[in-house]
């Protein structure tokens, strides 16, 4: 494929050069792309007022190869002789799983297929520690007949190969860790609500019923972690913009402001993604400190909106305007549970005055959360609640410049989330429910899930993604024809 043939050599070169540079006595580093994941969960790709792609709810939002020879088994004096049973696998530290997963829509959607998911997936993971260096590769081999084409696109995750991780990690100094390559990254405090986590998410995987781990899309980045007595500092550099795997219309129908109706495969989003190496880079910084059991953190991000948040009317194409995000969070024990608070200011740098109707305005996002076990009600029962608010800045300018006939957004969007988890049968059976409800939009999204651990290898799962909404143009309401139920069977090794 043309894309793969162009991008793989470039990524490999950047990967090798950055590794050599970092190993030299402390200079700068030439890394790969962004980062983004740790203990939370998800929220929003956005689209501009005239954008073609759906805007994810506020707060909800190509991989380098290893250097030649890295991670491969070194040559031996008897290369043609097969190793003793299990020795090769043990040397490679090989692990992974095989899974079949299918889903259907209980209602019809004239823009999409009745089947929402129908894939078989083999994941192979290899991690190897060398002297002062760790290398890891995680690759998924996927076939899903729900898709009409299977050509590989490592950026969007499309095709029969999805590289989840390809990186090396080392510590050049006692107070410094470095990880370079394709990696899964995250930070912040929200549970499936992201404010300061501007690392790529896979919203399509999230809504069609893939395992929760696939909400986090990989980043091609270099991450530098510094550990000091006064604070810990994480710096992530992405030499080329890594967007979300956002809703395009290929699997999930959505509301189009441009066409004024719900669309899908008849109007697949064709966006202009910033793609210049080092010219379209991203920076993300976190400074954190634990004080008396409370984790305090400050964040900064300089890059682009992670999903289309603009629209070019001259070319009828969605765009990714520049974005700066500045925020803070706190998390710690409170009233017998864990409480968290997080806030962020989204500076829409190409619409500073809010008077461009084709670029999303800036926003202020705030989140309060609380979770705790409820042993007095039932053993192994946990409850979590969150309250999220998104305020549009320069709202007056937005309303004055809104094109005639275009649906206006609210000044404030409120959302409440609820998570209930119950473990049964010696914790082999997990029942969970996660619900999003927006009182301002009048819509909701519910994720029920049942998972049973059959034995040390086999796991079975059933679940659903159910959308409600009185209006087709609200965030969850636009996905009303995409409600689905799914089932999966996995063998881990």
Give structural attributes.
4 helices; mainly beta; single chain; 3-stranded mixed beta sheet; 8% helix; 493 residues
Q: What are the SSEs and their pairings?
A:
Blueprint: H1 2-23, H2 87-92, E1 94-104, E2 115-130, E3 133-143, E4 161-173, E5 176-183, H3 203-208, E6 219-227, E7 232-238, E8 254-256, E9 261-263, E10 271-272, E11 282-291, E12 294-304, E13 310-312, E14 317-319, E15 322-334, E16 337-348, E17 363-373, E18 381-392, H4 395-400, E19 412-424, E20 429-438, E21 443-453, E22 458-469, E23 484-492
Parallel strand pairs: 10-14
Antiparallel strand pairs: 1-2, 1-23, 2-3, 3-4, 4-5, 5-6, 6-7, 7-11, 8-9, 11-12, 12-15, 13-14, 15-16, 16-17, 17-18, 18-19, 19-20, 20-21, 21-22, 22-23
Structural class: mainly beta
Gross geometry: globular
Q: What is the CA-based Rg, rounded?
A: 23 Å
The average pLDDT is: 85
Number of strands: 23
Which runs of at least 5 residues are low in confidence (pLDDT < 50)?
1-52, 61-83
Q: State the end-to-end CA separation.
A: 32 Å
Indicate the percent of residues in helices: under 10%
Number of helices: 4
- SSE run: HHEEEEEHEEEEEEEEEEEEEHEEEEE
Strand content: 35-45%
Biggest sheet architecture? 18 strands, antiparallel, barrel
